[in-house]
Structure formats: C-alpha cells, structure tokens
UniProtKB/TrEMBL annotation:
Signal peptide: none
Pfam families named in the record: AP_endonuc_2
GO molecular function terms listed in the Swiss-Prot or TrEMBL record: intramolecular oxidoreductase activity, interconverting aldoses and ketoses; L-ribulose-5-phosphate 3-epimerase activity
Keyword Isomerase set for record: yes
Superkingdom of the source species: Bacteria
Keywords recorded for this protein, A-Z: Isomerase
InterPro entries noted in UniProt: L-Ru-5P_3-Epase, Sugar_Epim/Isomerase, Xyl_isomerase-like_sf, Xyl_isomerase-like_TIM-brl
Name listed for the protein in its UniProt record: L-ribulose-5-phosphate 3-epimerase
Xylose isomerase-like TIM barrel domain boundaries: 23-274
Example of a GO biological process term: L-ascorbic acid metabolic process
Gene3D superfamilies, per database record: Divalent-metal-dependent TIM barrel enzymes
C-alpha cells in the first residue's frame, strides 16, 4: 500500500506547524515534505534547536501525520557543483546539517535537485564538482543512515532517471537513489516517461506528482504552477506503469500555492484529482 503526501509549499503559509499537520490530515494526506528553500527563514531550520525539533515531532505524533521527506532546494543558492570554493564548501556543510536534521526528525529521504549549477554557467568543471561534492554528501548520509534522492529536474543536466543512474555509476552507494518528478520527465520530448520509470524502477524511493507543459521547438515548456489536468502529463498511464512494476513507495503532490488566496481549494482539488487517478490505476493508498 502506497502513501500520499504533499509538499509544505502547497499548504497555507500562515499556518503553524501543528495547523499544517492537522490540515494535511483533514485533506487525506499521510505526510508532509519539509521545505528548506532559498529563503533565510527556511535555511535557518537547519540550525533548529533540539527543543524546536522535539516540538515538531510532538505535533507530528499527535496529529498522526509524519514528515517523511525533505526538499533541500536551497542548494540552488549554494550549488554542489559551484566553481566558487566558498559556495562549494557551503553546499556540503548545508547538506551535512540537513542530514543531521533529517536523522533527528526521522525523515527518510532528502531530495536534492539535480543541478550542478543553477544561477551561473554550467561547465565540465561544475559537473565534476557536482559528482565530487555529492560523493562527500552521500558518504556522510550513509554514516547517518539517511537516503539522498536526486530529483529529475526542469533542467537538461539531470532530467531523467537514466541520467541519475549515470551519476550513480560514479558514486556507488545504496544511499544515493532517484526521486523522479513525473511532471518533469514528461515535459522533455527526448524522455519517454514510461520507459524511464521502468528502466530506473530499482532506484526510485519516492515520486513527485505535478502537471507540466511539454518543451517544444518553440517553447521552453512550463514546469511550475500548471493546474492539475491542464498540462501534458499522462497521469493514469504512468500510475499504471508504477502499479505494474509493483511500486509501494510514497507519492508527493507538489505545488507552490502557499501564498495563494485559494490555497485551500487548490489543495483539496489536487488531492481528489490524484487520488481518483491512483485508484483507477489500481494503486491502494493508505487511509489517514
């Protein structure tokens, strides 16, 4: 039986952690994905005190909704492949803090975006730096029994599970796996999402669920804020692929609606839309 969760940035921003957890449960979600984005406020979570951590754990246990995954998107600001030695080391230190936080919170997977560099030029050096720094991160994660999961991105550097598998050829570790975003892998014309899921199935530890618009010769596609059902993702077919493969992991709905006036309505619609398609595909979802 699989579990359906939602990323924190989908939930109303003004809610406290207790309120977010209760709200998620009311909407039928089993877990929340913790956000460590580029904002100073959320990066500061990496320095939470034990009292802060215990408070979140207490709220989690009392609500019945866990914090299963972490999205470490702050690495866009501190890229693992940076040519700047200061940023290169800062990225590794950030990952170390994230791993320790995950260990204390009982988070299973830390999702790392598949970017060698985000705001600056990509080069042969940034690719090598990414692999080198990622090896350090994975070694530290292995010592702490925390999974590092690379997400397939809106970027050609790693836009498929196959490319994650190629990175794994350089970093041989069971603690480095794939966190495919079925919206992202569906948006690239050179990627067949069904084949990509099948070929990379043994590496999948969680799945992001969102809609996207495909990249074409004339457009750069759209990877965020595409309402469910209005994009090009063939959800039912891909869910049936995962059902056939025997996938029993987590599905995480991903949106960026936390500051939208109709945030609550978006969350409800997204849950119902995805749950219906998962059910049609024969995937049983844990009832909370």
């Amino acid at each position: 039986m699989a579990r359906l969760g939602i990323n924190e940035k989908s939930l109303p921003f003004q809610l406290s952690w207790r309120e977010k957890l209760v709200f998620a449960k009311q909407q039928g979600f089993s877990f929340i994905e913790l956000s460590i984005d580029e904002s100073d406020e959320r990066i500061a979570r990496l320095d939470w005190s034990d009292n802060d951590i215990f408070s979140l754990l207490k709220n989690s246990y009392e609500s019945g909704v866990s914090i299963d995954t972490m999205m470490l998107s702050a690495l866009r600001k501190f890229p693992l492949g940076s040519q700047d030695p200061v940023l290169y080391d800062a990225a590794y230190r950030m990952c170390q803090k994230a791993i320790i936080l995950a260990k204390k919170l009982g988070i299973r997977n830390i999702q790392i975006a598949g970017y060698d560099e985000y705001y600056h030029a990509k080069t042969a050096l940034t690719r090598e730096n990414f692999i080198e720094n990622l090896q350090r991160v994975v070694d530290f994660a292995a010592a702490n029994q925390v999974m590092i999961a690379i997400e397939t991105m809106d970027d050609d550097f790693i836009n498929s599970i196959n490319k994650i598998r190629k990175i794994k050829q350089n970093i041989s570790s069971p603690w480095l796996q794939a966190y495919p975003d079925i919206g992202n892998i569906s948006a690239w014309p050179q990627v067949n999402p069904g084949e990509d899921l099948t070929d990379g199935f043994e590496n999948i530890v969680s799945v992001h669920v969102k809609d996207t618009l495909v990249v074409t010769e004339n457009t750069s596609g759209k990877f965020k804020n595409v309402p469910f059902g209005t994009g090009n993702v063939e959800f039912l077919g891909l869910f049936k692929t995962l059902k056939r493969l025997g996938y029993q992991g987590t599905f995480t709905i991903e949106m960026w609606s936390e500051r939208d006036k109709d945030c609550v309505d978006q969350v409800k619609k997204a849950h119902d839309f995805i749950l219906e398609l998962l059910t049609q595909a024969g995937i049983l979802i844990e009832v909370v």
